[in-house]
What we know:
Elements: H1 4-9, E1 13-19, H2 23-34, E2 42-47, H3 54-60, E3 69-73, H4 79-93, E4 98-103, E5 107-108, H5 112-123, E6 127-133, H6 151-154, E7 160-161, E8 164-166, E9 175-177, H7 178-184, H8 196-205, E10 211-219, E11 225-230, E12 233-238, H9 243-259, H10 266-281, H11 286-301
Helix pairs in contact: 9-11, 10-11
Amino acid sequence: MKNNSEANNKEKIAAVVITYNRKELLKECLDALLSQTYPLDSIILIDNASTDGTPEFLKENGYLENPKIDYLRLSENTGSSGGYYIGIKRAYEKGFDWIWPMDDDCKPLRETLKVLLETAQKENLKYISPVMISDLEEKNLCFFDKKYKKITDLTFHPNYKDNLVLNHGVSPFSLIHKEIIKNIGFLEKRYFIYGEEVDYFLRIKKRFPVATSLKAICLHPSCKVKKINFLRIKFYVFWRENLLFNFFYLRNFFILFKKYPEYSSARNVLKTIIKYLIFFSFKERKIKNFKILFFAIFYGIQEKFKVPTFLK
């Protein structure tokens, strides 16, 4: 049994979960967090004004009676970036040592938090990411990357060392120490969706060492991309049926390029524009899609977090 001194010295950890209209996935996420072998001290649950009966669902399933769950329902949908900003700020102001943000469709394995924390302490890290995979059996990485498709591929990464990939870890599900927030502040809430984790990671990496642990695993649905064949050339683009989300993705890509030259080369930006021009040429609603790309570039290079009126 641990004595009072050991208990008082235990670092306190809060997960921050953002949810919007995905109550069944949210249940799996909460159950996974409550089952961690290294127990969380709190789960700060930010409900982005869900309209699918999420509050009633949480109440019926007993989650709101759990003292570890700190439920905050917002009056409007602030997107993932707004939700993370509010949740991380809440956790920081409550004095937690570590903050573990994640989406409602993320399921950490039982040992994930334990591995992240022990590795961070051993390696003196203030920021460490789990590896995100879409299935346990195949170990496929869930975020599309032509070079690294499986966990085993990451062992050939130039920065790989002892189950860690150093100077790596763009993930919205990283374990973050309070010292990071104290030194660089909170993430940018104006992205709405897509890009806030990249922005925060690039800011953090300038001041703190970062890494991804290949032993800490979270399950997450695969990133949806469209495969295009054009003149015997194959390429991929991110695309969702929600045109506003596509605008956010593209606008935020160009904002990140303008703010952080190390994020992407001018050549890659040009390739991205060409890929989407080709992709839109074969899509319905061509005029609207071309307008999305034009306004995304226009607002992005000006670093303006705006939405064109035709998408509102």
